Amino acid sequence: MSDAQLKTSFPQRAHAALGDAHLQEALTIATTKFIGLRKESFEGYPAGEALRDRARAIKEATLQQLDQHLERLADNIERLGGHVHWAATGDEARDIILRLCRDKGVRMAVKSKSMATEEIELNEALEAAGVKPVETDLGEYIIQLAHEKPSHIIAPAIHKTKGQVAELFSRELHGEFAADPEILTAVARKALREKFLQADMGITGANFAVADTGTVVLVTNEGNGRMVTSLPRIHVALMGIEKVIPSMSDLVVFLAILARSATGQKLSSYTTLVRGPRRAGELEGPEEFHLILLDNGRARQIASTLREALYCLRCGACLNVCPVYRQIGGHAYGYTYPGPIGILLTAMLKGNGAVRELAHASSLCGACKDVCPVRIDIPRMLVELREHLDREKIAPWPERMVFRAFRRLLLSPAAFRLSARAGRWLQRPFVRAGRLRGLPLLLGNWTRTRDLPPVAPRTFRERWKELG
Amino acid sequence: MNASIMITCLGDLLFPEVGVAMVKLLRRLGVTVEFPRGQTCCGMPLFNSGFHHDAALVAARTVKLFERSEHVVVPSGSCAWMVKTEYPGLLKDDPALRSQAEALARKTHELSQFLVNVLGVTSIDSSFEGRVTYHDSCHLLRGLGESRNPRALLRGVKGCELVDLPGSDECCGFGGSFSVRLPEVSTAVLDKKLANVESTGADCLVACDAGCLMQMSGGLSRRGSRVRAVHLAQVLEWEGRA
User: Fold this and answer.
1) Distance from C-alpha of A156 to C-alpha of A142, rounded to nearest angstrom
2) Nearest residue in chain B measured CA to CA from A386
3) Coil, helix or strand for A83?
4) Do A456 and B16 touch (CB under 8 A)?
5) Per-residue pLDDT for B235 more than 90?
6) Calculated CA dihedral for residues A253, A255, A257, A259, nearest 10 degrees
7) Predicted local distance difference test score (pLDDT) of residue A196
8) Which of B54, B173, B184 sits opposite A407 (nearest CB)?
9) How far is B10 from A44, CA to CA, in rounded Å?
10) N or C: which end of chain A has fewer CB within 10 A?
11) What is the ipTM of this complex?
C-alpha cells in the first residue's frame, strides 16, 4: 500500500478493524492456533534455545561483513550461469524485472509467495506493463482474486474466514463451492495448474541465500514454489540484501528454527534449494536464472538504530503473539509489513515520518521479543524509534510540551505534592461511587471505557507519618 | 535488615493502601522500613514515550535519593524493571552516576522477589480467605523473569485458593500512554483479559503492578463485575474490605 492511499489515521483504521466481526473471528482462530503450534514445537525441542542464540550470532556476524558475503554470493551465482542484479531502490528492482519481461517477451509470470515483491509493489507494475502476474501460494491467490494485500507475513489471507473464501471463489471462478478448505484448495490447484504451464517467468523471493555455494533457498509448504522455480523458462528471485548467510552449515541452524517459529513444523513441507539455471544434461529447471539483490533502505541501517530488524527471518511469530496485531490484523497498519516487526521495517523502508503513529502501536509487552527466533529486541527498538521521533521533532509538539511539563513535575517533589492536592480538587465533579468517570480531554480516552481510581484522600506520603 | 520503599507515582497517589499493606507486611517480617521523602516517579512514562534525556534527569535524581539504602523494594514490576535494566544505560555518559545506577539496580527488588529471594519467606500468615487468580504483568514476567514467587506466596496463604488464569501471560492492554493514545485497542485487549478473569470464578484478581491494576480494576468496575483487582501485598496483609 502506498502512502498516498493512507487517507485515514491509524486510530481510524484500528477502529474499523475492531468493528469487523469476520476479521475478529478469523484473527482469533488463526493467531491462537499459531501460538499453540509454535509453543508445542519448541517445548519438544530443547536444542531450540541454543540454536536461536546461534542464529542471532550468525546474523550479527554476517551483517558486519555484508559486502563480502554478497560479493561471494554474486560470484558463485554467476559461475553457475546465473545473472545477478543490484537494486538500490524498489523502483530499480521493478525496472530490472520489467526490462527482463520486455526483452524476453514475457506475458505471464507465476509467483511464489514473496514479501519483497510486495514491498516493491511488483504486481501493479507488471500489470501496468501488460504482464499478467499470477500468485500461486493459496493465501496469496485468495487475496489476489479479492484485489487485496497480504495482512500477515506468512499467512496473507489470515483475515478471511473459510466462508468468505468460498464466496470469493464461487464468484471469481464461476462455481458453487462449499466452505470446506479441502474443496477450496482443490479448486485453486486446478485453476493454477494451467497457469504454471503457460507462464514464461517464475518470480520468487528468497528466505536465504548461501554465499559459499550460490544457493537460493525457498521455504514453502504447498509445492508451488518448486513449480515456479522449475517450470517457466526464466526464474527471477528477488531478495533483500540481509538474507545472505555464509554457509550451508549456517542454513541448517536457520532451518531448524524458522518453520518451528512460523507454523510449529519441524521443517516446512518443501525446502527448495536453487543453484543457477538448468545445466547441460539436466532434465528440469529454467533456462535463465536471475537474482536481484534489493537494498531499499537496508544498508544504511547496518550501523543504526534499526540494525536488529535486519536479522528478521519473516516468520510472523511476533505478529501472532502481539496483543495489538491480534486485535486489529495486518491491514490496519497500512504498510507492507504489519505487526511489531513491521513497524520497524516500515521505518527502515519509508523513513521515521511514516511511523509517527505506528511507533506507538505497541504496549511494549515484550511477547514479540520472547518468540522471535533470533531474539530481536523489538520493544527496545520501538522505544528507540520513539526517541528519534522526539529528537527529530516528528512527534507532535503538544505531546512534547506535555512530557516536558511532566518531567518538571517529576524533578520537583514539592510540585509533585502540589499536583496531588490540585488533582483532588479538580477531580471532585467527576467522582461517582469512589471512581472517576467522564473526565475531559486526553483522560476522556481512558474514562470512555474504564473507570479511574481518584487521587486518594490521603496519599501514601501523607499516610507515612502515622505509620511511623 | 533495612529496606527503603520506592512507592512509585501511582502507588503514592492512587493506591496508598498498597504501600500501607507493604509497610505493615515488611515490618511484621522484621524489616526496618524507610521512606525517602523526595521520591516522585521512576521516569518510565518519559522513557517509554521516547523522552530519554528527560528520563535520564529523573533517573539521576532517583539514583542519588536511594544512595544510602540497603535494599529498595518496589510494589510494581515495571518500575523495578525500569530501575534495574534501564537506569544504567540512561546514565552511561557520566561514569560516576552510571556506577551508582548499577549499584541501585543490584539492590532494587520487586516486592515478591524481595520477600522470597532476599528474605527467604515461603509462607505468610494472612487472614485472607477466598479464591484468587493471578495476572502476570509483562515487565515482571518477561522483563524480570518472575512468575513463580507471587504464585508461591499466594499458595502459602492458608485461606487462599489460587486458580489458573487462562492467558495469564498476555498483556492487559495498559502499556502506559498506549492506554490513552489508542484507547479502543487498549480496551479490546483488556476485554479479552477480563473475560478470562471472569471465567475463573475468582473473587480477587491479583497482580504486582500498579499500571495493570489501574487498567484491570478500571475495566472490572465499569462492567459491574464482582471481581476485585488487588495487589499481592493486600492479600498478604489482608484487612477485609480495604
Assistant:
1) 9
2) B50
3) strand
4) yes
5) yes
6) 180
7) 96
8) B54
9) 42
10) C
11) 0.96
